[in-house]
Specification:
With 229 residues, this protein is α/β, with parallel strands linked by helices. It is built from six helices and eleven strands. The chain has one domain: Spore Coat Polysaccharide Biosynthesis Protein SpsA, Chain A, CATH 3.90.550.
Length: 229
Amino acid sequence: MVPVLVNSCAAFSDTWGPFGALWRKFWPDCPYDLVLVTDFLERPAPDFDAVVELKQDYQWCGNLNNAIEKLGNPEIVMLTQDDFWVTKEVDGEKVQRAHEFMNYDPTKNGLVGCCRIVSNPPATEKLSFDSEWGEHPKGTMYRTSAGPAFWRTDYLKKLLARTRTVMEFYLHSPADEFPEKVLSMWPGQEAMTFTDSAVVRGKWDANIVEWARSLGIEVDTSKRGFYEG
């Protein structure tokens, strides 16, 4: 079974409830186990199928690497982030297509290391044989992202070994040094849509909180204020 790893930490435990509730609301028949990764389990996480509590902070990349090892190094995982909240019904058939891409080479020109089920950040080159998908060639900005995506763990762990924080993972990943392809859904063809970061510079995005609450989702705002920018 492919686990969905939601990489988080106790400092962001207030995101767990809304994340899980929205995931279940918009993908109630998700066939994958939703797994919370955290340094410490500060509060309950009832919408998750499992929790990997590391009981130590190894930083964002180290926490994720350790969680993968604790789960027995599955060949493929889905990765996402705690403040990326699903915003509408997920297209499970398109997600399955992305999963299938991880088991063979649809480009016929190199193994796929990462296949995003979203279009943000957008791909720059549309695949010639399938207009719903695009590729992120070497040298393109944000070729590495923590947005919802399937990853081959051998490829992911090579990137985690050379980065520490989530910003390093985004901006200083050594992805271009390796042959694996990075694919994503083409804009307008997404299997999943999600919010921009619900937490901005340590503060809540008021518009996202208001939207979540309009759906009946509880958001604990006692831990952090609202971003004013």
